[in-house]
Design a protein that fits this description.
Choline-sulfatase; signal; 474 residues; Sulfatase_CS; hydrolase; 4-stranded antiparallel β-sheet; 15 helices; TAT_signal; 18 strands; Alkaline Phosphatase, subunit A; alpha/beta; 10-stranded mixed β-sheet; globular; 2 domains
Length: 474
């Protein structure tokens, strides 16, 4: 399929995806004329591998779309990551580097004038958000530019007794938090998104379903409260012989070795799984609404998280670390013309969401750092980038992920290079050291690419737009 044909099918919503048998069928002329809908689902603090516990997502989105196995967050912490999703830019170009005060920083940055919703609204889309917009949002009469339907959670997001929110910027409201669907933050947010989807079946829309789950503390639906009691992550706790000499000083200082720490992290993981289950229920609710309103065939669905989470890997907890558990994100895309059941190994980033969504909608995508992934969705084997930045300047490190054809053209050199503010360096070879236990420049492949990785990372940290994208390729 060539690019023109792929985009025609994307815009028309005529990929032949199954619709509910009872749904009223539109005429071919109507389907051809309308632009596609776009649903962006973004969870909070979800380890990439936990999508294996989402049975509905597996069956209806992954089996019917493309899964990206090398998708990464821009910055592995909530506030900056959400800023990058909204703007399509790196934190070093927006100044959004902290979760504390994230909402005020985002407003003061001036970047929201070009956020993804504002761009889509300019070409006639109705734009909606439910859930967690970003951290430290307390202003109950504020609505993000571009959104004409708004149900945003307000601080305190972690209150055990109440959910606080603003609907349409009409003041602070609250509802009791409990273990039923009527008092569960994920299902309440799913209901508001469902109502929006059902009420806009005749106009193109962009909807953000951004549940706070599975962020702790954990208040799962009652039906999942006793689930996953003995589950453990598929990733190993710690490192062999407790040797962290290859890791930066901050990693060694933050490591938690005790059995009590391990048990605490396992309980945290089980709490996440319980809330991942309810997110899956929310996704099911929305897909069902799309089927029942005859919209699924012309709706793009993106599933992603803002950042990952450590559950004892390298003896670390929480996030903001340069390792896979913090930095990888699940990314699943289902939409018109997207190959069903396909897997892409290409490097992709959260900053690619805005230009991709804008290309689908026919909106302006200028002035961003990301690149559209539509070529990869058309052909999962199509080349995109060979180098990808990940940064956490607030924590004191930045990294470059490399996936480049080897000299023999028989495979790929897969490396991660991390540089800390104090000058400490780590490098990992995904083929020889997939668990990232040995961070020294030991292998011939690591040594051969050392200078390239250092130079590329230094240049990427200061680049923007076309200049940045040029650095992603040799």
């Amino acid at each position: 399929m060539n690019r023109a044909e792929f985009l025609r099918r994307a815009g028309a919503g005529a990929a032949g995806l199954a619709l509910a048998a009872s749904a009223p069928r539109r005429t071919a002329a109507t389907a051809q004329a309308r632009r596609p809908n776009i649903l962006l689902i973004m969870t909070d603090d979800q380890p990439h591998y936990t999508i294996e516990n989402m049975t509905f997502l597996q069956r209806r989105l992954i089996a019917a779309g493309t899964r990206f196995d090398n998708a990464y967050v821009a910055t592995p912490v909530c506030g900056p990551a959400r800023g990058s999703v909204l703007t399509g830019k790196w934190s070093h170009n927006t100044g959004l580097e902290s979760t504390d005060g994230a909402w005020r920083d985002l407003v003061d940055s001036g970047e929201l004038v070009g956020n993804v919703a504002a761009r889509l609204k300019a070409v006639g889309y109705s734009c909606h958000l439910t859930g967690k917009f970003t951290n430290d949002l307390t202003n109950d009469d504020w609505v993000c530019p571009g959104f004409d339907s708004w149900w945003a959670q307000l601080e305190d997001l972690n209150d055990p007794d109440f959910l606080y929110f603003s609907e349409g910027g009409a003041g602070r409201r609250e509802m009791p938090r409990n273990s039923t669907e009527a008092g569960n933050e994920t299902m309440v947010a799913a209901k508001y998104t469902e109502d929006f989807v059902r009420s806009r079946k005749d106009t193109p829309w962009f909807a953000c379903f951004w549940p706070h789950a599975p962020h702790g503390p954990y208040y799962p639906l009652g039906r999942y409260a006793e689930a996953h009691k003995d589950d453990k992550p598929p990733t190993p706790f710690g490192e062999p012989e407790r040797d962290l000499s290859d890791k930066a000083p901050l990693v060694r200082q933050s490591a938690r070795f005790s059995p009590a720490a391990e048990e605490e992290m396992m309980q945290e993981y089980r709490g996440k799984l319980r809330e991942v289950e309810e997110v899956d229920d929310g996704v099911k609710r929305l897909v069902t609404a799309l089927e029942e309103t005859d919209q699924l065939g012309h709706t793009w669905i993106f599933f992603i998280t803002d950042n990952g989470y450590q559950h004892g890997e390298h003896y670390l907890d929480k996030k903001l670390w340069p390792y896979e558990e913090s930095c990888r994100t699940p990314l699943v895309v289902r939409g018109p013309g997207v190959p069903a059941g396909s897997v892409s190994k290409q490097l992709v980033s959260q900053i690619d969401l805005l230009p991709t969504i804008c290309e689908i909608a026919g909106a302006d995508a200028s002035g961003v750092d990301g690149r559209s992934i539509l070529p990869t969705l058309r052909d999962p084997g199509a080349p995109t980038r060979e180098f990808l930045l990940i940064e956490a300047e607030g924590r004191g490190w930045s990294s470059v992920r490399m996936r480049r054809r080897n000299r023999a053209r028989t495979g790929y050199d897969n490396l991660l290079f991390v540089k800390w503010r104090d000058g400490f360096e780590e490098v990992y070879d995904y083929d020889d050291d997939p668990r990232m236990y040995e961070g020294h420049f030991d292998t011939p492949r690591e040594q051969r690419h050392a200078d390239v990785l250092r130079e590329r990372l230094d240049a990427m940290r200061a680049a923007a737009g076309d200049a940045y994208r040029a650095l992603e390729r040799s």
